[in-house]
Amino acid sequence: MQQPNEVIELLSDTDTEAGANSTGNSYHLIIHGKPRSMPRPTFMSWTKKDKLMQRVVNAAKPHLETFRGTVLTMLQQNYSITNGILSLFPTQTVSLQLTFCRRPPNSFFQAKKRNGKDLRKMINEPDKMKPDIDNLAKFVMDALTGIVYTDDSQVTELVLRKLIDNKDPYEGKTIISIKLHT
Fold first, then answer.
1. Is-above-0.90 flag for pTM?
2. Are 142 and 66 in contact (CB under 8 A)?
3. CATH 3.30.1330.70 fits 4-180, yes or no
4. Confidence at 41, pLDDT banded by 50, 70, 90
5. Which of 33, 48, 81, 172 is the most buried (most CB within 10 A)?
6. Which candidate, 48, 60, 32, 8, places its Cα nearest to that of 174?
């Protein structure tokens, strides 16, 4: 069963807030659900038959693989891309614009705590809560490697924003704009 974070909708030409759109060398995706971040690796160690065993565990790996698979499937279905593993920009430099919109805290929905303030004005401001924006960006950039570009070193322009989601149903979303960097 797909989680809400892996749902990508198709964008119409007039509504750039709905899902996915492509014009030539430009792609726009909106992934609804809580934005994911790349956590620090966890190190495990144990002994087995008097021998020290160690392993690095990446807690984001299952989410990363699901995210990558969903992006690849949507590109294949909506943009007539038929390759199995591909790079939309195999050698070119890429410009990424990433906007992360976090679900507002529950206190924003409680009228007595808002003191009569307009909810949309309160949550249409930068988000200073964790996770850090660089960890959010790293997750998306790692997920796009091998699909959009061959290596994330091809990303030569990166614009990041972290906001609180101001549109009903306030579930959070990740907005990804990819284009050829000239």
1. no
2. no
3. yes
4. confident
5. 172
6. 32
